[in-house]
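sorry for the late reply, my laptop died twice this morning and i had to redo everyting from scratch. anyway the thing you sent over, i finally got around to it. pasting the sequence first so we're on the same page, its 341 residues, then the predicted structure underneath. double check i copied it right bc i was rushing
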Amino acid sequence: MGRNRATLADVARRAGLSKTAASMVLNGREGTRLSAEAHQRVFAAAEELGYRPNLAARSLRTRKTATIAFVSDIVATTRFAGGLIRGALDAARERDHVLLITETQGDATFEQYAIEAMLDRQVDGVIYAAMATRRLTVPPAILGGPVVLLNATSADGLPCVLPDDDRAGRSVAAALLEHGHRDAIALIGRNRLKEDDPEVSLAARARLGGIQQALDEAGVSLLAECFCTEWLPEHGYAAMRGLLSRPSRPSAVICMNDRLAFGAYQALGEAGLSVPDDISVISFDDDPIAAWLRPSLATTALPHEQMGRRAVELLLDGGPAEPSLVAMPLRRRRSLAPPAG
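ok and here's the structure:
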């Protein structure tokens, strides 16, 4: 208490170097020809003295505050939020930046207030994130500086980070083909609204396109396609019951997300059928429930942690305006087997 805060001059004096040389070392600036031993002296002196840089003075000098705004609609309260935020936090910390996080809950008035409050703090840039992968309208207030969209696109030609749903669709179909399924693959989760309106979903059309491309290349057609008004367990349950009432039963089912697959599992169990001995099931998202289902559900994982990290990297390093696609790894679990009989 009451102890004077160490200054850059104190660090330089302790290290036996000029203030300019000490500053270059601590700021990681290129061009210094100091020896490794001199670098060590500076870092040791800073640690011994408890030196902390004057961020206010540095921001005046560099016009950088080492802060990033993370603005989302309702990401922070969704089950996938942790990965998006954790990835962004980790990447920001590795680059000596602080993430300021706010959630708007879809309230336009509060969103405007929150954005203005963050811009007043002179953040170095804004990550604007969406809960569902979709096209959105970016608030004009944030367009004056660096912006990266996370899990979203816009008409503004901004850099954006998206999961590679198209490639995930191809990998899901390929996994069934590898197991020998060809003539009796069904699809649960067709939804015109999700597929046709990018402001509702970008994932549905991309997943469907990937599935169809992989099957077309293999000369395979779907046995049946089930339309669902929502991607929820009860709709997966109803769709699977409908499939089981058909004259020809599918050997494998692709569900457009894990919640649909959960409902499909329940319908199969009630019908006395086994996954995967009677019917294989594969899905998308890698919701935590996927690993807990019995048998565990094969699915492609939404790479939210990697997406959050990529958004920070794009914001700080710059990048092209086209989407930066992050791979969705296939979780090969026990719900896949060759066709019965």
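The longest strand covers residues 126-135.
thats about all i looked at so far, will dig more tmrw
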